[in-house]
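Assemble and predict.
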Amino acid sequence: MSEAGQPATGPVRPLAGAFHVRSDKPFLIGLGILGGGYMLIIMAMVLADLVFLNYDDQPVLGPELVQHDRYEAENAKGALVTVQPGRTYFFRKGNNERGLRNGDGQLQRNGLFVADGNTITLLPREAKLPITGSLRPEARVVDIAVTNGTVTLTTDTRHGLIWGTFIRVYDADRDDWNGVHEIADTTTNQLSFQLSGQPATATELKLSLPNPLIQALRSKDIQFSIKLSLISCTLTTLLSLWVAVPIGYVMSRYEFRGKPLIDTLLDIPIVLPPLVIGLSLLILFRYVPDWLSDAVVYKWPAVVLAQFMVACAFAVRTMRVTFDQIPQRYEQVALTLGCNRQQAFWRVIMPQAKGGLLAAGTLAWARALGEFGPILVFAGATRQKTEVLPTSAFLELQAGRTEGMLAVSLIMIAAAAIVFIIARTLGMKRIFA
Amino acid sequence: MIAVENIALRQGSFELTDIDLKLSAGEYGVLMGRSGCGKTTILEAICGLRKINAGRITLGERDVTSLPPAERGVGYVPQDRALFPTLSVREQLAFALILRKLPQDDIAARVDELAKLLGIIHLLDRDPEKLSGGEAQRVALGRALAHRPAVLCLDEPLAALDEELHEEMCRLLERVHRETGVTILHITHSPSEAKRLAGCHFRMNEGKVVREAI
């Protein structure tokens, strides 16, 4: 049918003049900005961690010399600080300093310098604001004593170090003294560490503090937590896959009554706050036989169980999607060729699910590595017993050592990166084989 | 032979009842009908991939109604061919034979025989993803024939092939039918294809299968 007056057949005429579509540019630019912005933040985040940490050794510093005051009328030109000429000091700028005057020269950056005269002057940006800069002398070793392999060093000022810190000895006149040592004991201006064997006395040496990464990697506690993290995450991953493969397969292939309910149940660990999962486990274990709860709660199995509860839910999701993406046709053909369901699963489906298995494993491993809340509640945070890397990071933060926490975070980033690279390489092999 | 007697099956709201279909041993039957009328469903029921609620299915003198697909002795070539992505062509052809625990030499001999019949000797070590449509069809056919089934079920085997390949595949199917003597049930849309190949035509119409004179 055609409108009256128009011919039923004839050349096709455009509706209204030329037809234009809008340019794709805004759409593509939008995609670029949104996607690129997010990726930029991810990269910047990791980069900031890597850059923030000071990888150089730090000097061992004495007490603070700057009296915290204000730049008032009498010291508007700068605050005087008494120093010893020829001694090394460490200067850190505050919010209101533009640097310091040392003899004829000016220092405008944080760092070490050697004092020229009896005083230095902190230079304010503005008067009538607080003095917030910091000036601390470098602690010098003035006495060295050795008894039974224990070295006791005396410094000329308070050094502020505590036992368990690692210290580097360098420029010693005895080579076997050089290296990183764990401080065993301290007093205000003394510190001691063990040397192996019966070393001869050194008469000269210098001290510095190794960077937080070395501090962390050398620490027995953190070494333990690295070990526990790696082992528990691997165990958790294996357990998760062992459970996730059958559940994912059943949920993908079979229809049965109550399936939506089970589907919801499987998501509970994902939607519940992690802390609540830890608490629920803790309460659940009040109802199990004593021998079981004694073996698990506040011990390493609790770490694995807490990680497993969350990680497994993610592995199940991944495996289910993996199986959903493999058409049922393959199994059907395998069945007509002479397989039973089990054979069809192992011979035809699992080889195709390898990529998904790898993805599920990696995801479970990464989740387990980052698990913190449930472990804290269900396994506690006992050093050398249930301390995993996130716990270490938390304990470092609690002790006020941001740099230590950052060091532990870097170890976790490295561990995660290694696992991802291994998984990707294996995945690539599958693709290019 | 294939004998489907009064079967009834249901899939969601889709229902087929009183389906009858009979093919003598060695016959080439073609089943035609509109899309979505249940042709594939009937094929799946014959292969044992779909539960039937009533009726009886006999394949080559055996009542297979309650047998699992593995024991029915059918070769199934689905429309999408469904070659196993992780196995080479050789492994696909050997798949059914390995399951039957045949000796290595017998498997190799049978694979060679099939490859010769189907003209895929040069493809034996390839991965399925590197096969063209026609090649994949031959391999799927070989895989289904490997265990010498009495019945071969083909679901639109010639769809999505260009004209030249279409003719080539028709000749191949004729040759396979002639040389193996297998009973074939072939689903298609195309009346010309049916005319060309079949000794026996079935048409699905309003939920019933009707035998048509050629």
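The radius of gyration of chain B is 17 Å.
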